[in-house]
């Protein structure tokens, strides 16, 4: 079940809750069917509100030799949450762009011994409207995100600072 909060006025285009649900459902389906690792990790879109994107994953398929979450799984879900935030926001705007991670820095602060969720938001100083304007003008733009996995007590277990590039989608060759 994907959760949706009351939408703040952040998108340039007005979208209905039904349109957002359809967009999120389609994005999750594409994610699970186009990236085998995501399917194996059992990653799910938990929530999207236009400001944040939260993905969740169960511990069992993401466990390491110590019984806690594998660092590669944590990094993957953190990266996917940032990618999802940008891809879903672009989808709400009706914009057809490919989104790629350009670079990232992960910090592993505490072991994760349970199912986990990664929440992404735009990094401090980033501006969605400038990003969209640059996309319109140049056909590509960069945007930084901040993602975190928190423990039940609210402390960060892992964080990721990432820079993504969106580029106008070229037609695929036949």
From TrEMBL:
<protein>
    <submittedName>
        <fullName>Thioesterase</fullName>
    </submittedName>
</protein>
<dbReference type="InterPro" id="IPR029069">
    <property type="entry name" value="HotDog_dom_sf"/>
</dbReference>
<dbReference type="InterPro" id="IPR012660">
    <property type="entry name" value="YiiD_C"/>
</dbReference>
<feature type="domain" description="Thioesterase putative">
    <location>
        <begin position="25"/>
        <end position="167"/>
    </location>
</feature>
<dbReference type="Pfam" id="PF09500">
    <property type="entry name" value="YiiD_C"/>
</dbReference>
């Amino acid at each position: 079940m994907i959760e949706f909060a009351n939408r703040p006025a952040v998108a340039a285009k007005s979208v209905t809750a039904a349109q957002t649900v359809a967009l999120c459902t389609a994005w999750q389906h594409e994610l699970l069917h186009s990236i085998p690792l995501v399917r194996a990790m059992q990653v799910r879109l938990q929530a999207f509100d236009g400001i944040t994107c939260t993905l969740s994953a169960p511990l069992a398929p993401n466990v390491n030799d110590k019984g806690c979450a594998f660092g590669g799984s944590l990094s993957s879900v953190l990266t996917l949450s940032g990618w999802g935030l940008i891809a879903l926001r672009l989808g709400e705007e009706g914009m057809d762009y490919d989104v790629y991670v350009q670079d990232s820095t992960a910090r592993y602060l505490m072991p994760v011994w349970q199912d986990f969720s990664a929440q992404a938001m735009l990094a401090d100083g980033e501006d969605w409207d400038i990003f969209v304007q640059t996309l319109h003008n140049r056909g590509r733009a960069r945007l930084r995100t901040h993602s975190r996995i928190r423990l039940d007590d609210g402390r960060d277990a892992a964080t990721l600072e990432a820079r993504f590039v969106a580029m106008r989608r070229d037609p695929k060759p036949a």
